[in-house]
């Protein structure tokens, strides 16, 4: 039996930000406090240099003002979470180990574990992108959060596809189909999700529907170009037609959208 105490706070970053503690919801006074806590939670347990935190959230400010803003933000976090929540070691800052249970950090551990139970929990955990309601007008923050969103989305997609692949041989074709559809709703270019969908349709006795949902080579290539360049109405129409087919299938898993 472990003597470790359960985390004092629960932090939700997948979707809208939410923080709760022993006495209920904890409100933070600004988006930058939210961003600072999220960054420390996702980079933990590695301590973060103060100058990197300054650049991340106040890079557009003069250095003196930016460092003052960081000191004030850290003070406010300590007021909200308790003095013991943050560890300051010279020029580095980190969250105290075991203080916060963060859903985004937990997602990574569940996917890495890879068991059927952990993948099922990961699939349930990921419902929206990271910090969907937080916008910070700082270039370093924008770059970092975009990278984290992509990384966590990739982990969620891996979990969805692997979970669907587990469900298929167990005879749960409809569950595998619904899971593959969730993956395609996040990223319609995941060929492994299309493959699982086709296999699930075949297992359910509807193999012909799967070919309509599989992206053709030309459309997939166009979509990769569009992803890099940010343009292309033709690609949008191509992707929309594929999503429509997948949506029709998922809307009626018994009849395949007929």
How is this structure best described in words?
- By secondary structure, the chain is an alpha+beta fold.
- The protein has 2 domains: 9-101, Winged helix-like DNA-binding domain superfamily/Winged helix DNA-binding domain (Arc Repressor Mutant, subunit A); 124-251, no CATH class.
- The protein is built from 11 helices and 7 strands.
- The chain has helices at 31-43, 50-58, 63-81, 103-113, 116-125, 139-167, 173-186, 191-203, 207-213, 217-229, 233-251, and strands spanning 9-12, 18-21, 24-25, 48-49, 86-89, 92-95, 100-102.
- A 4-stranded mixed β-sheet has the order 3-2-1-7. It has a 3-stranded antiparallel β-sheet with strand order 4-6-5.
- α1 crosses α3, α2 crosses α3 (63-81) and α7 (173-186) runs antiparallel to α11 (233-251).
- The N and C termini lie far apart (54 Å).
């Amino acid at each position: 039996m472990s003597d470790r105490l359960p985390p004092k706070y629960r932090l939700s970053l997948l979707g809208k930000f939410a923080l709760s503690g022993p006495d209920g919801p904890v409100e933070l006074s600004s988006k930058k406090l939210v961003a600072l806590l999220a960054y420390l939670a996702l980079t933990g347990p590695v301590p973060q240099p103060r100058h990197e935190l300054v650049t991340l959230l106040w890079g557009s400010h003069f250095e003196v003002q930016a460092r003052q803003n960081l000191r004030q933000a850290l003070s406010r976090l300590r007021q909200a979470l308790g003095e013991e929540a943050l560890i300051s070691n010279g020029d580095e800052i980190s969250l105290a180990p075991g203080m916060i249970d963060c859903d985004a950090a937990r997602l990574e551990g569940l996917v890495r574990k890879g068991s059927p139970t952990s993948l099922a929990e990961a699939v349930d955990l990921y419902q929206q992108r990271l910090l969907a309601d937080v916008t910070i007008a700082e270039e370093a923050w924008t770059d970092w959060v975009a990278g984290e969103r992509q990384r966590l989305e990739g982990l969620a997609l891996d979990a969805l596809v692997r979970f669907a692949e587990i469900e298929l041989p167990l005879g749960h074709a409809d569950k595998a189909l619904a899971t593959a559809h969730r993956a395609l709703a996040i990223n319609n270019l995941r060929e492994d999700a299309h493959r699982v969908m086709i296999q699930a349709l075949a297992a359910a006795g509807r193999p012909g529907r799967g070919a309509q949902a599989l992206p053709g080579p030309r459309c997939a290539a166009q979509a990769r170009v569009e992803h890099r360049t940010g343009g292309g109405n033709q690609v949008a129409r191509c992707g929309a037609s594929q999503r429509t087919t997948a949506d029709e299938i998922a809307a009626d898993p018994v009849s395949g959208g007929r």
